[in-house]
């Protein structure tokens, strides 16, 4: 009897304690609820990033089914991690499996028998990345349950399938934003602002645009994640987990909607159907309603985490409906609706076979959907493990073969470029993406084109051929329609990302496969992707004004108190031709070490001369105010990143602060980035008479108001300079009302975009050609024509000025051939229109850019138009 009672007690104890099966037998692991003090996904509860990682590291100590690797740092220095969950044997073999992944992902020449053995020994690697958008809290809050449930076999068949699968996750793609959001939520918990929007951006710089950076790789977090699938682990399946609005479908899984990327092998699109449909089937079978497919989200643009698709990984997106962060919402049936592509009505359909009919929706529901979505991914990858691994290596064979047999065959980047610094940065970026770069060892002729020794070459016969072609070619949007001859399917995001065009680098696409050409190439290391230094001596350093990087040297030197000089006109000294806009820096003993450190980090090299030539004038560092709203002002964040990258000191000023600042006393330049006029003026969005009040805590949705704007006008009249680009240029249209009513005036510029859009002008994010006027302070170092990024931006029209004002058109659209890359409709309407205008009022100057000169940090070709404007003196500009 005692033995029976003991046995019953033991069984109860075992049942109550979560268990993990491992190589040494059954071993208890800590449950998430006991660690955090609440069940992950509980209403009004969220854990910090440190707590999340503390739990996952505890699991690593308690179970041999999990490994946690530190893989890099965030922009604010938080460690980032990659977590592996699998069988104990697979965890022990991770390094061996990593090498198998590398061979299958990159080697097209594996002998068939060896390949068969590698596929048998290999495992399917499934990577999920969580909550890069930090206001989309569900995926990261689900991470502990994903790991715990897999370790403890909560879903009964998972241990069986993890024999064939290694589950990988980045528990928080944006650790900085993770903590920002948790701290903000807890601060306002229990107040009317519970669940409100975080003021500012949930990242050091770019907020939501962190998911618009996977070509440029400007942000550290994205460099870390890209490295996983570009260079180190080569997962076979990559899943990017997001959230969307509250009043639509509950969950999106692939396949995607049209249009899709044209450079992707059909195999990958078919795999997206297989895995996406498995998620939809299994989740719906468990009663999770509102799962949709083939809805809203296309996969044409490659700037998101699933840029892995262009590197031969099966790449998927999931999107869960949101709540007010961890605060639930109640959605009425009549409030549910759909918009965009794939669903015309919120009703049962092939793309949503089991609609959700409204009710409570909160973090518990989101976390459940996220956890349940993982199981069908693992099951499918396990059941089709060999096919997935075989498919991966088949793709490599096909892509390398296409590179040898289908044009284009390679891209040549001549070493003699207008901006050599951007050439070398482009080459280094390609290396970051896992692309091999080569250098010509002797002169060569391909077809009728001659190339020189020292020119750079990117071969298309590489495993990541789709990515090379995608980012090197000129984009042509694949126009698709809902019905034959009917409405065009609009792109989800932008339509141009050509690295050479966006950086102002010449690249020649070669469509002739020249025999013997490859034998003239030498592989290039990243260290060799820079200008060769010269042996000449001299204490004066000349930095070429055509190079963006020369501004890095100038601004960094000015910030250190080093004297910097600049020439307004071309000159020659000692046989050295110095373009207009170049910089001269004297390397004194006091600053020698700082300048040498600066030079070590640069890809371009200055020329040394022994004396200071005539024609150089000393310049000063301007005092810069960057106006940034609290309303998730991403473009201002990109401006901060640009200025930090180039060593440009600045002060962030909120619109509500402007009325209380003596701008002329504190600043030389005030910058308005791409933000709406109504948000800058009033802190709200307005459409006609209707106002939209954003859900922010009190005191944040506030604009500069009439008094603040009068301060800006006084700043200009009294000698200050203002830069304004994108939507903020609307501030300078219409009647200006300074403090004295009798001094009303209009700047000699209007925004006519509304009229042209009414004539069916459509530019949804494309690169457009502009011509620049030569020999102007704003165009120093620039070629005569470039591309500018335009995305439904203002269209300017100038007038003959009065009231003592002046204006010059700095950049204008050409009469023909306006579209350089992407999509545009009726762009002829832009012919000869101004794209950039300089104006003078009183003692001050205003520079208006109708385009975004630093769009998502990806338009280096227009950076000098910003840098030159920062250095403007009080001058007429004629």
Describe the protein's architecture and organization:
With 878 residues, this protein is of the alpha+beta class. The protein contains 24 helices and 44 strands. Helix 5 runs parallel beside helix 13 (385-405). The longest helix has 21 residues, at 363-383. The relative contact order is 0.08.
List its traits.
878 residues, alpha+beta, 10-stranded mixed sheet, 8-stranded mixed sheet, 24 helices, 44 strands, disordered N terminus, disordered C terminus
Tally of extended strands?
44
Question: Main beta sheet: strand number and arrangement?
Answer: 10 strands, mixed
Q: Roughly what fraction of the amino acids lie in strands?
A: 15-25%
Would you tell me the overall average pLDDT?
94
Query: Tally the helices: what do you get?
Result: 24
Low-pLDDT regions: 1-26, 874-878
